[in-house]
Specification:
The chain is an alpha/beta fold and about 260 residues long. It has helices at about 65-75, 100-110, 115-130, 145-160, 175-180, 190, 200-205, 225-245; strands at about 5-15, 20-30, 30-40, 50-55, 75-80, 135-145, 165-170, 215-220, 250-255. The chain has a 9-stranded mixed sheet with strand order 1-2-3-5-4-6-7-8-9.
Length: about 260
């Protein structure tokens, strides 16, 4: 398949009763995206397995530890995509973690915003996963937190075969978020798409996923996303999915942050 990006296996090691492997894929020339495969030890054969793809920075791996262990125990293949920050998209295999966001800001103003690059990296990661014989692409979920959840939505719009796209703590619109965090907009170069508001907002991007399944999760404790904002966005998406012919393919929920164990 010409869509499958170049890749190589970095290592394979035993992990409990299963195995862990790391692949490097090249999402564009010189840009390396690490992908970790956790195969459950209770898998009966080498056939395709239902797969959960988690997206985050490598240093956030511990945040996902409970989720990874739970999915493995249930027999899922777990994939962790290590998202590059704007300053890490380079030819260097040993990528550093800069303490500032200068490169992200420069990308924002030069037409290569972090969020767009993340969406592209995830699209190529999905192309790679779809071609892997152990991945059941008919039962694959893609999950992201906050700004990464927006990148997940972008990628799953272009790869609608993804069984379920899940965004956690990203149920906002840029217009309403700007009002909520008045005076604290410094993170926007990372999570904003320049020029988008001339055509629509984040809820319009999410609506492009219809009628393929989408789940948005918000927390009652997140002051950045009031329940009224999340309810309004959810209502828009419910209408979009109903118009697309499958209103049940979209779901949203608001939970207590203390109940989320990831």
């Amino acid at each position: 398949d010409s869509r499958v990006p170049p890749y190589r296996l970095q290592f394979e090691l035993p992990q409990g009763d299963g195995t862990i492997r790391e692949f490097y894929i090249e999402s564009e020339e010189g840009v390396v995206v690490p992908i970790w495969f956790y195969r459950p030890g209770n898998a009966k054969d080498d056939g395709p397995l239902p797969t959960v793809v988690l997206v985050g920075e490598g240093r956030e791996w511990s945040v996902w530890r409970n989720a990874i262990e739970s999915f493995l125990a249930a027999g899922y293949l777990v994939v962790f995509v290590d998202q590059p920050s704007g300053s890490e998209r380079s030819t260097h295999e040993e990528r550093t973690r800069p303490s500032d966001s200068i490169n992200q800001v420069m990308g924002f103003y030069t037409g290569r915003p972090w969020l767009g690059l993340l969406g592209w990296d995830l699209i190529k990661a999905l192309d790679f996963l779809e071609a892997m014989p152990e991945v059941d692409s008919r039962r694959l979920s893609l999950v992201g937190l906050e700004s990464t959840g927006v990148g997940v939505a972008i990628a799953s719009v272009y790869r609608k075969w993804v069984s379920l796209s899940v965004g956690v703590f990203c149920g906002y619109t840029y217009r309403e978020l700007a009002e909520t965090i008045d005076g604290e907009p410094l993170w926007l170069p990372r999570g904003f798409i320049p020029g988008l508001l001339e055509y629509g907002d984040l809820d319009d991007i999410y609506a492009l996923r219809a009628p393929s399944p989408l789940l948005l999760v918000n927390s009652r404790d997140d002051a950045r996303i009031p329940e009224a904002t999340f309810s309004k966005l959810s209502g828009h998406l419910e209408s979009a999915y109903e118009s697309a012919g499958d209103k049940n393919a979209f779901a949203s929920c608001v939970v207590d942050l203390s109940l989320i164990h990831i």
